[in-house]
């Protein structure tokens, strides 16, 4: 009996060593773990890459890479001056406006001024060819009550009078600017309520992890594909918006829709002499098919 017990213990040790150390230490469900760790500060999609190489800081509801862990900054400087440096600016908030062009321009003129430079009506920007930048103010209050700087991009015309405008603002200014936009366009009614499915799914996943752990199947996933299944990362709201809040509003009189697209549209900045050549090599134009 003693020999049998020793044999059983020996077999158990051999079974535990069948997987490599990385596999043994891997979390049962990475999605559940990552979502749990993002309850207070949202991660950008490049978070794990940055977390391995940067000192991370928690600002404006996000977890951002602040400074590299390397003692030398020469690599970044060399990339900016001779090659290409990419920055993840996805923590900037995107506010989307949809509606008739004349209605949009009429109200947007109230929160900016030609005295400061470009406006939303600038021809080169209105065509959708270039991005514009300006300072925003409270409606009809220029030069007082400045809200802050913003950049904007018009979607190119498609032959219709309806246009689409994206306004990019810093997360610290997002709530004030969104409030002012809803006021000038009289968007008080929510078009749709933010679906809280990601949060529910995250909680369900955590419960599932607990059940699996209690059964002792620590390394097995209750999935047909087993370990080959790659879980989809879910973003719970964003750093400036509670997942239970509305994210889209509509004006009943004009039909203009304001949507909060934060963390739905990613944004990257390329700096350096090779930026354009890298973009042309990476991105290929899609063939436009007319129906």
Automatic annotation (TrEMBL):
UniProt-listed Pfam families: POP1_N
Signal peptide (from-to): none
Domain of life: Eukaryota
InterPro entries: Pop1, Pop1_N
Annotated Pop1 N-terminal domain residues: 4-99
One GO CC annotation: ribonuclease MRP complex
GO biological process: tRNA 5'-leader removal
Annotated protein name in UniProt: POP1 protein
Taxonomic classification: Eukaryota, Metazoa, Chordata, Craniata, Vertebrata
Gene that produces this protein: Pop1
